[in-house]
Structure formats: C-alpha cells, structure tokens
Amino acid sequence: MIEIYLFVNPIGKRCLSIERRMIELIKAYDLKIQLRLIPIMNLNTISEFMNRIGASEKDIKLRNDLSQEIHSAALDVKAAQLQGKKRGRDFLVELQEAVGQQKQKYSKKLALQLFTKIGGDVEMFLEDRHSAFVKEAFLADQQIANEMQITSHPSAVIYNYNDDCDAGIRIEGCEMIHHILDTYNTKESLTTFLNLQNKNIPFDHLATDCHLSLI
User: Fold this and answer.
1) From the centroid of its chain, how far is CA 189?
2) How far are the Cα atoms of 1, 126, 127, 184 from residue 187, in angstroms, in the given order?
3) Would the N or C end of the chain have less CB density within 10 A of its end CB?
4) CA distances (Å), 85 to each of 25, 38, 89, 90, in order?
C-alpha cells in the first residue's frame, strides 16, 4: 500500500491545484493509495504565505489575522473529516476555492455555508468543531508535520509499504510536486518512482534540488 501525507494550507489556492491533481491521478491510475490531507500552520508556513501574497513580514496585525484564519479553517477541516474522508476532502476543496481562488473573506459563517453545500451533518459539524477531540487532532497533525520536518505548504511525504520499507520521500513546494506528477505521468512510471525509495537509488536524474529528500 502507498500512503501519501499532503500538508496543505486550508485557505490556499496553490494547495488546491495539487490536491486536485493527486486525486485525479489516483482515480485515473486506480492505484491503491491512501491520501491523507493534513492542514498545517506554523511560523514558517505563515511567513511563506505572507511572502507569497506580497505582504511584509513586519505586518504583525496581518500575521496575527492570517494565523487565526488558518487555525480556525484547519479546525473546520478536522471537524469535517470526522464525517468521512470524502466529505472532509470535499469541504477542504470548497473552502480553498472560496477563500483562495474567489478571494472571499474567511469566516465561521462561510465555513458553515460551505459545509451545508456539500451535504454534511451541520449539527454534528458544529458540535465536533468546538470539541476537545478536534483541537487535539489538529495538534497531533502539527506534531506529525514537525516530526517529518515540514516547513512549507504544500508538501508531500510518500510511504510505499509494498516492500516493507520504512523510508519515505519528502517533496516540498508546489513546483516540485507538480514536477514529479508531470514527469511520472503514467501508472507504470509513477509506481517506479515510488519504488525508488526502497532501492536507495539517487534522485540526481530528476534534475531537482534539495526540495526532494528521504526521511
């Protein structure tokens, strides 16, 4: 089995493009891949996001506002995921489309409207959203990101358990992930790439830099 951890900004449009591409490839190739979408937030990702939108890192108010929005959106996603992976994924996509692409202002009201749109159980969502379990789940995700040394989003970590190998491939950044998906764009080539980690084959031939590494 192949397991992919995809670390994302829950209100970022760049992450949305990666999610869509991965979901399309999994469906097209009929691969046995477990995709885990993990919303993350840390000092590095906030700074990276501010740079991306052309904001000054010295703008403390904006930094605080973005931190609160991303944190709140991440809790929304964790609550949505409790109603199933597909529902959690659908909600995340709707949220990123609304805030990241359409530039709507994030709010808890917007999150509720989007969750209603995808047909989720709103009463359960509201109950879970304010639960200690969801907060703990969010913190657990941040711990996973920290252990995997994730410092930017989107980033992906791929594990291939087919050959009892504990190593994983960490791919950081939107451009690098797209590069991998564009280079290995068939079922056979993608499977070969995922098996590289088990054979300790160098990645030089990928013409990539330090954004691709073993963990």
Assistant:
1) 23
2) 15, 40, 41, 8
3) N
4) 17, 11, 6, 9
